[in-house]
Each structure stands twice: as C-alpha cells, then as structure tokens.
Amino acid sequence: MNAPLTPAEVAKLGDATGRIAAYAARSLVQDFPHLDLEQLVEAFTRPVAVEATARLYLAALDNGATPADAAGRAGVALIKAWATARLAAMDAAEAARTA
After folding, report:
1. Which among 3, 14, 66, 70 counts the fewest CB atoms within 10 Å?
2. Is the entire prediction scored with pTM above 0.70?
3. Percent of the chain clearing pLDDT 70 (strictly above)
4. For 1-99, where are the alpha helices, taking DSSP H only?
5. pLDDT tops 70 at residue 84
6. 13-24 burial by CB neighbour count: b if 16+ within 10 A, else e?
7. Could you tell me which residues come within 8 angstroms of residue 23 by beta carbon, excluding any fewer than 6 positions away?
C-alpha cells in the first residue's frame, strides 16, 4: 500500500491532472474543431475523470515513466475513455431511435 500523499504532493498532482485535462481537451479541439472546448473541459474535470487520470498518472510514475510520459499516457487514456463513452452513447441513441 502506498503512503498517503503530502499536501505538496497533492498540489502537484492536482496541477498535473488539471494540465492533462486541459491539454487533452485542446488537442481534441485542434483536430476536431466542431467540438466544444468548454464541454470537453467539463467532462475531463468531473470527479470520476480526475480520479482516473490521477490514478493512471501516478501508476505510470510508479512504473518509471517520466512526468511528461506519465502525463501523455494519462491524457491518451482520458481521450480514449471519452471517445468510447461518446460512441456508446451514440450507439444507444441510434438503437433507441430505430426501436
């Protein structure tokens, strides 16, 4: 079991997690300009997303990744989870529409 984070570590983790969410949202909007940046940021900063991002970031650090690599991995995972959820929602809406 890992030791609890110090207040300074919590602050650094919060900063890193916020940056990951912001970079992931901006990256998506650059490639898909029809997406709404504010909605993406809202989705990426919901508690469940923040917890998952922080967990993935810390796990990557524990496995020897640099902070930049850990952030990249967590950001990619965040985007993939968002895309999977969006596709599932679209499929469910289509199934309801055709039922």
Report:
1. 3
2. yes
3. 98
4. 7-31, 37-44, 47-62, 67-98
5. yes
6. beebbeebbbeb
7. 71, 75
Which of 34, 7, 27, 6 minimizes the C-alpha distance to 71?
27
Rounded mean pLDDT of 64-73?
96
Measured CA to CA in angstroms, residue 1 lies from 4, 18, 63 at distances of 9, 25, 15
- Write phi, then psi, for 12 (nearest 5 degrees): -65, -40
How far is 14 from 31, CA to CA, in rounded Å? Answer: 26
pLDDT digits (tens, 9 = 90+) for 14-36: 999 999 999 999 999 999 999 99
Q: Measure the CA angle with vertex 91, ends 88 and 96; round to 5°.
A: 125
Evaluated on CA atoms 52, 57, 63, 65, the torsion sign reads positive
